[in-house]
Each structure stands twice: as C-alpha cells, then as structure tokens.
Design brief:
single chain; 9 helices; elongated; about 80% helix; mainly alpha
Length: about 220
C-alpha cells in the first residue's frame, strides 16, 4: 500500500491538478478570516472550507490515471486495492493542508478565554471531521458510482453542500460546535463528530473498493 500511495501522490503532484483546490481553499480562508478574530470561529471556517476541497481532491485522484496505466496497476496490485490507494491519497493531502491552516489560525487568532492547546485540538478534530466527510462525498460522486464527468461534478457540489447543512452530518456537528464555542469562548473538541466522520469515510471506502473490483 505504501508504494501505491507514493505512486498516486507522485501522479497528483506532477499533474498540478492539486493547484485548483488549494487555491480555492486559500481564497476561502483569505476572504473569510481576519487576523485577530475569535479563534474558534475562524477554525470553524477553516474546517468547513476543507470539506468540498477534500471531496474535489478525492475525485481528482480517482480519475487522474489514464485507462492503460490504471489497468496495469490493477493487474499488479488488484483493482480494489489500487482504488483504495487513490481514495486515501486524495484525502490525506487536504488533511495536511488543513492541519497547517489550523496552526496558522490558532497562532494568529484571538485566543482570549481559549488555551492554545485546546484550540489546536478542537481545530484538528474539526478538520478531520470535515475531511472525512468530504472524502466520503468525493468517493460516492466518482467512479465507479458516477463515472460520467457531468453527473459526478454535480453530485460532488450538491453532496458537499448537503454535508455542511444536514442535521446528523459529522461535518455540520463539528463546525456548529466551533461556532457555538466562539460565542461562549469555550473549546469543546468534537470527538464524536470526528469519530463518526472517520467511520463514514472508512465504510464508503470499503464500499467503493468492493464496487470497483466488481464493476470495473
């Protein structure tokens, strides 16, 4: 699996297709966050913006291989395992970007009433919750479920929006906890939301792996 992750990461970095989601994320943070604002509210925005970016990144990694190269990798490593590596690559890089954003926002935001450690933990858990939910959205809106580009993009946009506003969504729960904490200056780490998002992402990844092995 390590070799597959390196292979997928190499494809992603060389293709420069990562640049568009990264610029989108940077623009969201630049427009929505002002230095000196309450740190928890800023962390909530940083986490929420990561959800569609992660979904987009997952879709990029799942579709970036030419069909011939995909066939060779599937023959060597197994179709389901290769697809799982693409999903993992698409989710892990946004998590790293989100973790860096959490660090920057925490150090530059207004931490009155909130300790630095508590803000970091709360922000990182929210990032994991939103990235995990976004990874699930990206996996469900890509091959093998929706191979057509138009339908895939439409499902990705709609799924990302619903994941941020639907009651019961781990991402919505995590962002709401941060927004509420910003009003009361109380950091409540969204452990439950983070765990639920990771379980959701794992379940969708397993489903996508099985579907890939059967349908493609």
């Amino acid at each position: 699996m390590t070799a597959l992750l390196r292979y997928q990461s190499g494809l992603l970095l060389r293709s420069q297709r990562w640049l568009a989601p990264l610029l989108l994320y940077t623009a969201c943070l630049a427009v929505g966050i002002t230095f000196g604002e309450p740190v928890l509210g800023s962390l909530g925005l940083a986490a929420a913006a990561l959800l569609p970016v992660t979904a987009w990144s997952v879709r990029i990694c799942v579709t970036q291989e030419p069909p011939a190269a995909r066939g060779v990798v599937a023959a060597v490593a197994g179709r389901g395992r290769a697809h799982l590596a693409a999903l993992a690559t698409g989710a892990l890089w946004p998590v790293l970007v989100g973790a860096f954003a959490v660090l920057v926002v925490t150090l530059t935001g207004d931490r009155r009433g909130v300790g630095t450690g508590a803000a970091l933990v709360t922000g990182l858990l929210a990032v994991l919750a939103c990235a995990g939910t976004g990874a699930a959205v990206g996996a469900l809106s890509s091959r093998p479920f929706l191979p057509a580009p138009g339908r895939s993009l439409g499902a990705l946009v709609l799924g990302s929006l619903l994941a941020l506003v639907t009651t019961g969504s781990p991402a919505k729960h995590a962002v709401t906890a941060l927004v509420t904490g910003a009003r009361t200056a109380t950091a409540e780490p969204p452990w439950l939301a983070c765990g639920g998002a990771l379980l959701l992402a794992a379940a969708v990844a397993a489903l996508a792996r099985a579907a890939t092995a059967r349908l493609e």
